[in-house]
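Letters spell out the chain; backbone shape is given numerically. Take this protein:
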Amino acid sequence: MLTDRAQRTLDTIDGQTLDEMRALRDETERFMQRYKFGMDEVITKLSILREEFSQAHSYNPIEHISSRLKSLDSVIDKMRRKGIDPSFEAIRATITDIAGVRVTCSFVSDAYRIAELLTAQEDVLVLRVKDYIAEPKANGYQSLHLIVEVPVFLSTGAHPVAVEVQIRTIAMDFWASLEHKIYYKFDRMVPDELLDQLTDAARTAAELDARMERLHREVHGQPPPARAALSSEV
């Protein structure tokens, strides 16, 4: 239900303007829908890898897959912060994390393996890689960030869509979740003492990852993993 004021404002708008508003609404919905489909495409690829590993290797390197699509309000806020022109083309070229997929693995080697298998697929184009596992952020944050582009096939043809993929271990994910809650509680003004404790906890999480992977490989008689470098940018 519209308020009286909103209804009066709407009544003053001519028919042509209303048609233009409807057209803009429809175009915006189609624009966001493509990102949703791109996200679904990446999830399908990861789910296939997950099932194939479980059946062929009796081992599942993927513990959990989650996803999120930015709200239109979040996209607009990011446009304003970055000073982006209010056009779909500018958004498409500049904001690459509208669609996001997060993959949680047991071990660090699994994170790199999944990244290599995903990016080796012919219809996946790697736009950017940020390896915060090899080079953690100053606060201790670790994760492997990929920006990939996948084709979404619609009735109007193929549309390339950028999707952000974050791959991390269970320990990294637990730490990142805690950090997010702390930053939210303190409105990003976190006391130095808590920041120091967070950084120390990140080191502990990294040590746990290394110890658990060594134990896993000893139990299964596996050699240390040979980590292939991922290209940082195309």
Q: What stands out?
A: The helical segments are 4-11, 15-56, 72-82, 88-94, 108-119, 170-185, 192-220. The chain has a mean pLDDT of 87. The two ends are 50 Å apart (CA to CA). The chain has one domain: 22-220.
